[in-house]
Amino acid sequence: MRVPGSDLDLRLVGYFTVVAEHANFSRAAAVLHVAQPSLSRQIQRLEEHLGVRLFDRTPQGSRLTEAGRAFLPQAQALLEAAHQAELTARDGATPREFTIGYVEDLVITDAVRRLRHRHPTARIRTRHLEWNDAHALTDRRVDALVARAPLPFPAGRLRLTELWTEPRVLVVSTDHRLAGKESVTVDDLSEEVLPQCPSAVPQWSDFARLEPRPDGVPARSAPIDYASFEDKLDLVAEERTVLILAAGDRRPQLRPGLTTVPIEGIDPVRVVLATRSAEANPLINDFLDAWSSDKPAPRGR
């Protein structure tokens, strides 16, 4: 049994709508990234299949025939229906809910917008988390987490996919001896004190404090504990400590009396997408595709 319309090639229909839009085979070929002779052959195939001529060639380009004008709205509706059918099938095969966590000042708006456009019927939510929330993924409060690595909590059961990298900077008071320098190295920080974070895993603390150091001398520790990131910035403004952050973290710029100095010769921060290692949610791959289709500038909000 022959299914009506099943022999119609949607790719050729798409070519037809582009030629109709531009009224010129050369311009349409450039838009479609195909050679003009090839495009002409594809349109000829469509005309042979339909049994009608769709375009008349003119000195100015091409013009729709009466049959072409009649076919155009149907062709556009056909392509839109095919697109919606694809979205419906994809959403029917994927979970209807997906929650994306993010921390600090990281911005995920554009990637989330693209994901929602691709899955318009899915319930896609975002959730800002504390930087050291160790259980958001394992407790399934979020399905994915955008964060800076190394993570401050154990990541053995997580899968990390790098999104981009950011160089690191030194955050100091505007009156600090290193303020205004073009850049600094680890050696320049030998006399500086750095805050500790006992709740973070050693890998995170070592990375944040630039340990171990080439000379083997441990970093000096600030004698005062802190309860929040804002507390750390207060200590920096008071010149009681310095801080090392990703260059993309713009929060220090919101505080008067602070400035940043690039640090040379150290590893950058990796911005990653963290997911449960056994997670099979296909929306994760689509979210990664949303990042790769337009990688963000390495900066924060």
Describe this structure in words.
The chain folds into three domains: 83 residues, Orthogonal Bundle (Arc Repressor Mutant, subunit A); 92 residues, Periplasmic binding protein-like II (D-Maltodextrin-Binding Protein, domain 2), CATH 3.40.190; 100 residues, D-Maltodextrin-Binding Protein, domain 2. Helix content is 33%, strand content 21%. It is built from eight helices and twelve strands. Strands 4-3-5-12-6 form a five-stranded mixed beta sheet, with helices on one face. A three-stranded antiparallel beta sheet has the order 10-7-11. Strand 1 and strand 2 form a beta hairpin. It is elongated, with a radius of gyration of 28 Å.
In summary, what is this structure?
Belongs to the LysR transcriptional regulatory family. With 301 residues, the chain is α/β, with parallel strands linked by helices. It is built from eight helices and twelve strands.
Q: Looking at the structure, what is the overall shape?
A: elongated
Our estimate of the beta-strand percent is 15-25%
Major sheet details? 5 strands, mixed
Query: In terms of structural class, how would the helical and strand content be classed?
Result: alpha/beta
State the helical fraction.
Answer: 25-40%
Poorly predicted tracts of residues:
296-301
Number of strands: 12
Order of helices and strands: HHHEEHEHEEEEEHEHEEEH
Query: Assembly state here?
Result: single chain
CATH architecture level-2 label of the largest domain: 3-Layer(aba) Sandwich
CATH topology of the largest domain: D-Maltodextrin-Binding Protein, domain 2
Number of helices: 8
Q: How far is the first residue's CA from the last residue's CA?
A: 59 Å
CATH class of the largest domain: Alpha Beta
InterPro entries: LysR_HTH_N, LysR_subst-bd, WH-like_DNA-bd_sf, WH_DNA-bd_sf
Protein name: LysR family transcriptional regulator
Domain HTH lysR-type: 8-65
Keywords: DNA-binding, Transcription, Transcription regulation
